[in-house]
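Each lists chain and fold; for instance:
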Amino acid sequence: MSGKPNLLSGMQPSASSLHLGNYLGALVNWVNMQKDFNAFYVIVDLHAITVPQDPFELRLNTRRTAAQYIAAGINPAESALFVQSHVPAHAELAWVLNCITGFGEASRMTQFKDKSQKAGSDSTSVGLFTYPILQAADILLYQSKAVPVGEDQRQHLELTRDLAERFNSRFGQTFTIPEAHILKETAKIYDLQNPTAKMSKSAVDPKGLINLMDDDATITKKIKSAVTDTDAVIKLDWENKPGVSNLLSIHSSISGESILSLEDRFAGAGYGVLKGEVADVVVNALAPIRDKANDLMSDQAELDRLLATGADKARAVAEATLEAVYDRVGFIKAN
């Protein structure tokens, strides 16, 4: 790996397809960041099992997620692309960090509180409770200087920074203190049927979600049935016209054309014209990604080989960090 600063990010393999929000909000940034950072991109299957998973679907979705990473522009020759469970140091460091994390500190994580309230305490796993600590281990293993995260993950990154500083203070300088690389607000993509909510794989109505693996006709149908409003004016106004604003944002994020230019060009046009062009722009962007991902999925042996190569790169860094951690906490080195 090069002398550039390290970066780590990843997604859960909890669905058969990534969606447009994942692509514009994360993957596009990841691809660009490969130039400036020593990038480690991970499919976090250990995180995925904090909630029930079907084993067959988990394996399939892990490969599907990897294929979509590559198809979207993650270069396995340039970045370390790997599966979290292929690097045991993630779970091993997480245990050490669990032991320096206060129960009250972990209890204050708002995502856990939100998810556990919905599921109920008896259905909520201890793994979900300690999820942010495993996430801290993911980051700290690679001496990551930058961590691309959305605003909803900022609290978890602050916990990571606190744990790194606490360990360094108690046991000596060991971890790089990571910094948040907050992804651009303009890259937020909202649900087509509920444009006040972020696009999410847990969407109530599947018509609100554009998947990277959707066929052209399905993408077009979803966009043409997107919720708008009744006044027929095409302008950016998130408060009063969230549906129209979302369509303009999607177009601009993919095409690179400014919102002002789009407003001028669509002045006097109907929503049908806007939806038709947004559909064309999205299909043209996603079709090559879908087709390449399907090609990668058709050769499982080659995809697994690429993931194994990425895991080798990741282990070289992760195991060196873990060895230092084990030495500093007082473990006897194994022969």
